[in-house]
Amino acid sequence: MTRAAVWEGSAIAVREVRLPEPGPGETLIRISAATVCGSDLHTVSGRRPAPCPSILGHEAVGVVVATGADSPVSVGDRVVWSVTVSCGECPRCRAGLSAKCCSVRKVGHESFAGDWPLSGGYAEHILLPAGTAFARVPESMPDVVAAPAACATATVMATLEAAGPVTGRRVLILGAGMLGVTAVAACSVADADVRVVDLDEQRADSATGFGARPDDGGPADVVIDFTGSTPAIAAALGRLDVGATMVLAGSVLPAPPLAVDPETVVRRWLTLTGVHNYEPRHLTRAVEFLETTQADFDWAELVGSPVPLERISSVMSPPGSGRLRSAVAP
Prior knowledge:
Elements: E1 2-7, E2 12-17, E3 27-35, H1 38-44, E4 59-67, E5 78-85, H2 91-94, E6 105-106, E7 125-128, E8 132-136, H3 143-146, H4 152-163, E9 170-174, H5 178-189, E10 193-197, H6 201-206, E11 213-214, E12 220-225, H7 230-237, E13 240-248, H8 262-267, E14 271-274, H9 280-292, E15 327-328
Parallel strand pairs: 9-10, 9-12, 10-11, 12-13, 13-14
Antiparallel strand pairs: 1-2, 3-4, 3-7, 3-15, 4-5, 5-6, 5-8
Helix pairs in contact: 4-5, 4-9
Keywords: Metal-binding, NAD, Oxidoreductase, Zinc
Enzyme class: oxidoreductase
GO molecular function: alcohol dehydrogenase (NAD+) activity; zinc ion binding
C-alpha cells in the first residue's frame, strides 16, 4: 500500500491506496518532494474546475522504483516528468504539438475514481503511463529546486522559445511569481535588458535579485505575460516596439476580452502568440537551466520548507515570507 492526499472538493484527505504493478511502458516513482503550483491553489479555491476526487500536484521529483517493459527510464533514476501524457500518434503529436495531443492526459488532473488513480504528485508514489516524458535530475540539485522544473521552469523554456532570441533585446515580464522570476533569470543569463512588473511591489523588487531592473514604462521588444490579466496585457500591448513579440502564457482562466487593433499589428509588424504546457525538449532544458544557474541564483530560497503529507492542507494557500512556492515531502 501507499498513501495519497486526495482532493475531495471541500477538503483533502490522506488515504491508503493499493500500490500498482507497472504495465508496459509504465513507470512507478517514489516521490521525494512536490511543489504547489498556482493552478492547484485555483482548484481548491474554486476558481478552476477539476476532476473530483483526484490527487492534485504536477510539479514533483522522485526516484524510479519499478518499471514495465519499454519504460524510458530505469530503476534508481532520479527524475522529473512532464505534466502532459501524449499518444505520440495523432495529427497534433506528429506536428510537434504533443502538449495538445488529441487524447492528452495530465498529471495531477485525472479522476481518482478512474483508471489512473495514482496520477498526482501529492502522494508517496505516482504511476506514470506510457507517453510520459522524463528528464534525469543530477544529485547535486535539491528536491525543492528540481520539482518546479516539471511545470514552472519548463513552461518558461517554452515561452522563451516562442519569443525568439532575447540577447540584447528589451524584455518585459508581466508577473513576478515563480514563472516570472524564472523568466527574468533566464533572460538575464541571455544578456537581455529585463524589466518586470507586478502589482505586489515586494515581489517585483525581489525579482531584481534575479536580473531584472525596475520598470521604466518604456518600449519593449519582447513581452511575456504570466498574469492572465487583461488590463496588464492591454497596457503592455501599447508598449510593443516595431517588430516586437508578445507571448501569452498566463491566460488559463476566463477573463475579459482583449481589444487588439489589427492595423497596429500589421503596421508595427507585431507577433502575438500563446503557450500552454510545453514539449519534452522544454523539460530537458528546464533541468539543464536550473543545473547551470545553481551558483548564480538561490532557487531553493523561493520555496518554503516541505511539510509532510499529513499537513498538506496547511500549504494549499499562497505562500508568505517572500516564498513563491510551498512544498510537500510525501
